[in-house]
Structure formats: C-alpha cells, structure tokens
Write a structure and sequence with these properties.
Blueprint lengths: L2 E7 L3 E8 L4 E8 L9 E2 L1 H18 L7 E8 L5 E3 L9 E2 L7 H10 L3 H9 L8 H11 L1 H4 L4 E3 L1 H10 L3 E3 H7 L10 H6 L11 E3 L3 E5 L2 H7 L6 E4 L3 H8 L8 E5 L3 E8 L11 E4 L5 E8 L3 H11 L5 H10 L8 E3 L19 E3 L7 H20 L8 E4 L8 H9 L3 E4 L4 H13 L6 H8 L2 E5 L5 H17 L3 H19 L5
Parallel strand pairs: 1-5, 5-12, 9-10, 13-19, 19-20
Antiparallel strand pairs: 1-2, 2-3, 4-7, 6-8, 11-12, 13-14, 14-16, 15-16, 17-18, 20-21
C-alpha cells in the first residue's frame, strides 16, 4: 500500500494527514493554534514550523507500516497573510495570518471608497481585495510598524514557509499569488497594482511563482530525521486552501459546484477561463491549476449562525435533531414566510457587499407557527446560496461539505431550491484531501483529477431536486425584497446604535 502525507497549514490549526492510495485517511494529527486577541492573529514563524513538525511526528510515530511506502509529502495551506524573511533569509517578525482583522478599515477604503481602485484591482486580480490580503497587510505594516516594514526582503504564504523549511527552496504557487497580488490572466507581477498601493519595491520580494502540483524538491536529510520520514522524500507544492478544498470535494469538471457551509458559506463554481467575465465586479475568480479551468468564488457571511439562532431563540436551546424534525415535517414555502439570513454583525460580502446587511422575516401573521419560522430559515439559507450561483447555467454536480452537509434536511431543501443534484460526502478534511489528490496525480498514480476523484471521493448520499413553483417564485421574492431592504439597512444600523446608546445612558448612575 502506498501513502501520501499531507501537511495543511491553516489559520486555526495545522493538520497532518496520511492517506492511502484509495483516499482513506489512515492517520491524522491536528495541532490547534492559540491566540490571546481574536482581532490580532500573529504567530512566531519558527513556532509555526515547530508545531507542523509535531503534527507530522505524531503520525510517523504511530505509523505501523513501512515509511518507504510514503510516496511524497503534499503541502497546502490557507491563502493570504504575511510570512516574511529579512535580507539574511531569516524570519524577524511574527507571521500575520489571513484572519487578522486589523486591515478592515483599509479594506473598505481600497475596494469602495477610493474612486476607480476597486474596478482596477478586480481587473488585475479577478477579485476584490479581501481580508488578510498580503499587500493590505504590508500597507498596514508600513503605516504602523515602519521599522519592520523596511526589513521585508521576501513575502510569501504559510505553505511556502513550510516547504522552504523542508527543502530550503522558497517558491509560491499561482493559485495563492493570483489571489493576492499577481495578474490573474498570466501570473505575472503587475507593476501598477504595487505602485498604486505605494509598495513598488515589494515586487522584488515575491518568490518564484510555480504552477500547483509540481515537485519543489526533496526533504532535507536533517529535516527527514527530525520528522521520522524517509530521506529524499519528494515535496509537492499544492494549491491554496480554497482551491484544494474544491478539488477534495470532487468539483473538477466544468459547472461543478462545491459549497462549504459552516460559519460562513464558501462557494466555488468550476468554469472555463474563457467563460469568466471579469467586468462583473461582484464575482471573484481563482486560478484552479487544472487545465484551462478556474474557479468562480464567493464568500458569504450567511451560514450556520442562522440555524444556531433559530435553535437558541425559537426552541430555547433545544437540540438540532428535534429542530430538523420540525423543519422536515413543515410544508414547502413556510406558510409564505420569507427569511433573509444576513445575521452576521459584519454584514454581507457576496453576492453583494453591504457592511450593515440585516436579517429578518417577512410574511408573519397571526397563524404563523414556530415550525414555519424554522423552515423559513433553512429555505432562506438555500435562497442565499442560489443567489450566489444563479448566473451559472444548469448542469454539473453541487457538492455540499462542512456542517451543512451533516444536516438531515438542508441538502434536500438546497437541491429543491437550486434545481441541482446535491452530493454529500463522508469525509471532513476536504482541503487536505485535495492536496492528496494533487500529489497522486503529480506522482502518476492517477492519469488525471477526474479518475482520482472517481476513486477517492466517495459520495455518501445524493439528493435529487424536486421541481417546485413555490421555490421558483419564493426565490424571485427573496431577491426583490433583499434589493428593497438594502436601501434601509444603514438606517436600521444607526437606529440599533441609537437604541444601545440611549439604554446605556439610562443605566448610568446619577451623580449626587
């Protein structure tokens, strides 16, 4: 039996997974990352490497087979963030991870406040600048820590750092680079983008950009000994986390869709490069690394939060199983109630941007039941997903992963609302699995990704769509109401602030 070892450098944890050639995880080790401040996500780069070593060592010490049967180590990780080296090739400051939130105000300025910047950036990157973008973090560093900024000699990503420590070769891949600073169309460094940010000299700090799925080198002898791995083990540069997630979910053919439904909803649609319209500023595109394909991506802040709210508020903290029984027993259409699931205090990012987007029900009357409200939540979440993919032609599979895939009722409602066949997988670590599939294709065990996913990605259940005029009309109403309400959301937010401020003042003790 042959194996692939995957190292996944994330923002919340670092994972090492050993997969057999059938795509089964034989061993897994997860090291959680801890932070004192949820807004500031920094970690010592050497500590990040040491924790990665511990994750791998946990596996090799448990592995009962022949270590020589490990064919390669495939490295992926969350994109964005800022890992760096000084002119001596040494880390001198903590790595800033992708989920650091200190650039929120700058993010809004770049994308929406400065006339023309958002459109210009989208034309280069194929997407808006997002939280954790490497260039945004560099701007923040330039303004707030110029002493550290001036020492920047190399800038790169989490997985690049791990590969560098294993091989002593610093590279990045096109899926990561084009998501943050490289031209989407050709992978080159755009002089104008760096210049408008006032970061012109950082162009020389970008490492060599390679396509994903290449062997960067082999594990250094001293590193192999430290990790308990065979010497000269090939190290494979896999795609960035969101791309690897799509591969691991089995979305490798045109019009396939992968949706990771958790606290947020990450949706990717596989498209041909020539079919991508970069003039649609509400769309984001990712280089896929598979032929002439790319991913149309969207990150929505709607997600499991609405279901949690329904469970806590409408059922007084009742269990999810009971809640879903009520939802399943309720008829489609929820008695005419429409729910908008924009409950995040950060608003909404996609398929539209509004920092003050608000959630709510419409259509409640004296006969509306609790079960109808609960069902409306699930339907509203499904309408929001359709809102992200409605511009894409029918056809292709929709793969649902994350917490949403564990639901007993959401997959069927999603199939009915979108009119697409929904597949739910038995696996959990889709990003790691995508890196595993990349390695097996690179090492020649499979001819292509289609054959690799056919064997290694096992769908637990398919949900067939049931055509319904209720959901066709319900979706149209959902969008119409969203467009109407969006004109009042900012006023609603001001009213909330007024209420909170007034009540806080009323509670202040009077001075004698």
């Amino acid at each position: 039996m042959k194996y692939i070892l995957v190292l996944d450098g994330g923002t919340e944890s670092i994972k090492a997974v050993l997969y057999d050639q059938r795509g089964k995880a034989a061993y897994k080790s997860t090291i959680r990352l801890e932070f004192d401040n949820p807004q500031i996500r920094e970690i010592d780069q050497n500590l990040y490497w040491d924790l990665s070593c511990r994750a791998i060592r946990n596996l090799t010490e448990k592995f009962e087979g022949d270590l020589e049967d490990i064919m390669a180590i495939s490295v992926t990780g969350e994109g964005g963030g800022l890992f760096s080296l000084d002119e001596n090739g040494q880390p001198y400051m903590p790595a800033i991870l992708e989920n650091d939130s200190r650039t929120e105000e700058l993010l809004y300025t770049v994308n929406y406040k400065v006339p023309g910047w958002g459109k210009r950036i989208h034309k280069v990157l194929g997407r808006k600048v997002e939280q954790g973008n490497t260039l945004l973090l560099a701007i923040w560093l330039q303004k707030n820590r110029p002493d550290l900024y001036l020492k920047l000699d190399k800038i790169f990503f989490a997985k690049d750092w791990l590969i560098y420590k294993m091989t002593n070769r610093l590279v990045t891949d096109r899926t990561d680079a084009t998501a943050c600073y490289a031209t989407f169309a050709n992978g080159r460094i755009p002089t104008d983008l760096f210049s408008i940010f006032g970061l012109g000299h950082l162009k020389k700090c970008v490492p060599e950009i390679l396509p994903p799925g290449v062997v960067v080198g082999t594990v250094l002898p001293e590193v192999a000994k430290k990790l308990g791995l065979p010497e000269h083990l090939p190290v494979i540069l896999s795609a960035t986390g969101q791309v690897s997630m799509a591969i691991g979910a089995g979305a490798v053919s045109t019009q396939d869709i992968a949706i990771e439904f958790s606290n947020t909803v990450r949706t990717v649609v596989v498209k041909r490069f020539k079919d991508c319209d970069f003039n649609k500023l509400h769309k984001s595109f990712l280089h896929y690394g598979i032929g002439q394909l790319c991913l149309e991506a969207s990150n929505s802040l709607t997600g499991i939060g609405s279901i949690t709210w329904g469970e806590d508020v409408l059922l007084n903290g009742g269990d999810i199983q009971n809640m879903e029984k009520l939802v399943e027993a309720q008829a489609s259409g929820s008695g005419g109630v429409i729910y908008h699931p924009y409950v995040s205090t950060e608003g909404e990012l996609s398929p539209f941007f509004h920092p003050h987007a608000q959630g709510g029900f419409l259509g409640i009357d004296e006969h509306t039941t609790k079960a109808q409200l609960l069902r409306a939540i699930y339907e509203g979440l499904s309408y929001a997903v359709k809102d992200s993919i409605v511009d894409n032609p029918a056809g292709g599979q929709l793969y649902l992963i994350g917490e949403g895939g564990q639901s007993d009722v959401l997959p069927q409602i999603l199939a009915d609302v979108t009119g697409r066949r929904v597949g739910v997988y038995e696996d959990e670590d889709y990003t790691s699995k995508g890196a595993m599939l990349t390695a097996y294709v690179t090492m020649g065990l499979f001819e292509n990704y289609a054959s690799a996913t056919a064997l290694c990605c096992r769908v637990e259940k398919f949900y067939e769509p049931k055509k319904s005029v209720i959901y066709t009309e319900g979706f149209h109403l959902f969008r119409q109401l969203r467009e109407i309400y969006s004109k009042t959301w900012s006023k609603q937010e001001k009213y909330k602030i007024l209420v909170q401020k007034t009540l806080a003042e009323d509670e202040e003790p009077e001075n004698d």
